[in-house]
Known about the structure:
Order of helices and strands: HHEEHHHHH
Structural class: mainly alpha
Distance between the termini: 57 Å
Largest sheet: 2 strands, antiparallel
Helix content: 55-70%
Mean pLDDT: 81
Strand content: 5-15%
Number of strands: 2
Strand order of the largest sheet: 1-2
Radius of gyration: 43 Å
Amino acid sequence: xxxxxxxxxxxxxxxxxxxxxxxxxxxxxxxxxxxxxxxxxxxxxxxxxxxxxxxxxxxxxxxxxxxxxxxxxxxxxxxxxxxxxxxxxxxxxxxxxxxxxxxxxxxxxxxxxxxxxxxxxxxxxxxxxxxxxxxxxxxxxxxxxxxxxxxxxxxxxxxxxxxxxxxxxxxxxxxxxxxxxxxxxxxxxxxxxxxxxxxxxxxxxxxxxxxxxxxxxxxxxxxxxxxxxxxxxxxxxxxxxxxxxxxxxxxxxxxxxxxxxxxxxxxxxxxxxxxxxxxxxx
Length: 282
């Protein structure tokens, strides 16, 4: 027996005693009037049969009202149970949808991380060996970034000698753009992929985005962070990438700069990781 049937039986049983008592009172009053009052009437002004039917009709009306009240209460109970069940199904579907979105996000995110690693591993630069101009030294993978950094440092020191009165920002921009003339083909795709990963995380609906940003930050070496620092000061990264650097605290572990005073070229947020409870990077 289901819950609705049990509820209906309980309500019917609760109505029964009261309505039968009313019926008993009607019959008792009718019988008493028939026995004691009717014989004493001088004229037959009372029709006992009509009185009985009238009383029974009144009892029937009361009984019907009570039944209708019971059924309405039962319907309200059923509607409440239905609403509760629908609410539970909705919450379950929302939880499943959230889990599915997170799985899809993580699949894409870690695929992008794999792409980033493959780009780093594919890097290769050749430079003449000192003392042997006809022999080249080949540097591969992440080790290339130390060469990139010292190339940039050489350009920066050259700019300082050429324009000694220039401010720090102008020197950094000029040095990086001279460096990019012969290294952009090596690092352009690298920075583009790094930017796309951060943009993907920031644009997603996933919660605690900083967790995934921190996973990406853990992939970056000291030399990579240094190049990122100066890339985002130049026209190559100033317009969009620098905003993400400052928003997501990408330079938190930065340790190498061309000059100590350059740190002031960024907002302090670039060197501080946002709280993990945040729903976005900033």
